[in-house]
Amino acid sequence: MTRARPYDRETALDAALTLFWRKGYHATSLKDLEAALAMKPGSIYAAFKSKEELYLSTLERYFQRNRAQLARLRGATGSPLAALADFLRGFGRSEAGAAGGQACMLVKTLLDVTEQDGAIGLRARYYLDEMTAEITAIFEAARDAGELPEGADPARLARRYQADMTALRIEEHRGGDPVALAALADDMARDVERLRPAESG
């Protein structure tokens, strides 16, 4: 009897993330997962316990990748506002995102799940809240560095920023002219950069 090929968890999670992000939780069948992960049903359940647990793992992976990208940009630019602007511009480039050209996986999840998928919905909301907190902290750092005008509200700016980010991802999901998408991303990024008081450079 031929032994099953050992699976690589990281590779399997990447494949599952791409599939779930494209099709959604409910539209993804076990056969879809078998094909994408190159694993038999028994192996999938042995590795990930259930379809729901696998989905939750991919949500975490998606969130951690976005958070890590923000951290990389912040480290590279040395400027909190520049990092936020560059993050937006990244969505206007075709290489952005593990499965590029799609709406935010967390937002798509909230629109896809039902009351029976309570754990998934709660997790998606949690990660969205965590992302808001991450962005708020960066705006707070910008305020402390003198990159925001007096009286600026980091929490309010973070909510606006996240709304812009979601809208940009929806435009990316719709398809269309990539040049226009890049221009839209640049417009949003420039709005962030314009928050900087003139005297701060």
Features:
mainly alpha; Tetracycline Repressor, domain 2; 201 residues; 0% strand; elongated
Care to describe what's here?
- With 201 residues, the protein is mainly α.
- The protein has one domain (58-200): Tetracycline Repressor, domain 2, CATH 1.10.357.
- 70% of the residues lie in helices and 0% in strands.
- It is built from nine helices and no strands.
- It has helices spanning 9-23, 30-37, 41-48, 51-77, 80-90, 105-112, 118-144, 154-174, 178-193.
- It starts with 8 loop residues before the first helix and ends in an 8-residue tail after the last helix.
In short, what is this structure?
This protein has 201 residues and is an all-alpha fold.
CATH topology: Tetracycline Repressor, domain 2
CATH architecture: Orthogonal Bundle
Q: Given the C-alpha coordinates, what overall shape results? A: elongated
Q: Fraction of residues in helices?
A: over 70%
Q: Give the termini separation.
A: 69 Å
The named CATH superfamily:
Tetracycline Repressor, domain 2
Specify the CATH class: Mainly Alpha
Low-confidence stretches: 95-99
- The helix/strand order is HHHHHHHHH
Mean pLDDT: 88
Number of helical regions: 9
Report Rg.
Answer: 19 Å
Structural class: mainly alpha
* Overall number of domains: 1
Number of strands: 0
Specify the biggest β-sheet: none
- Tell me the strand percentage band: under 5%
